[in-house]
Amino acid sequence: xxxxxxxxxxxxxxxxxxxxxxxxxxxxxxxxxxxxxxxxxxxxxxxxxxxxxxxxxxxxxxxxxxxxxxxxxxxxxxxxxxxxxxxxxxxxxxxxxxxxxxxxxxxxxxxxxxxxxxxxxxxxxxxxxxxxxxxxxxxxxxxxxxxxxxxxxxxxxxxxxxxxxxxxxxxxxxxxxxxxxxxxxxxxxxxxxxxxxxxxxxxxxxxxxxxxxxxxxxxxxxxxxxxxxx
Length: 230
Fold this sequence. Notes:
Helix content: 40-55%
Distance between the termini: 5 Å
Strand order of the largest sheet: 3-7-6-4-8
């Protein structure tokens, strides 16, 4: 334990808002380099390949969708292994450090393949076939980069939608390639299917709760996301 390294921890989020949470928790600039993936996986791969050359570890951080039905909104999940098109084990010492820092978090497998699981049926299928706790859209790319560069890899994410819940169509088009909010695409989706508005309102309320937990958790894990406590 205590592997202090002067190189930055590379933190990958999905959205710019998730990246802003890190800054709000006084993490930005304190030995971390943040990349918002957005909806452009090719750009993320290029940025990660360059950043990883100068980093000491890679962590996938932000929101996730629950696959396990027992996970509630705002619950933290620490990845132990990654499933999907790319399989990987998370760094055991880093996982242990995150467990000590967030003792109420669940620890288990994540599923990631770049697609958003929007329907209960999709989530149930993944639960049955993979035994994963949660899913996100970036961790497979982060895991690939970590393996390629021989760096420790971790996943730390907060539940923003539960397993027994479909997501409204607007959520699927909500993210820009740079990770920003695609307001125009969301409005177009609403105009095309106005009946989704109550569902969308409820979904966004869940996201807001997850963002609050995301900020609190980012402060709890402390500097460099627990990397130096490995």
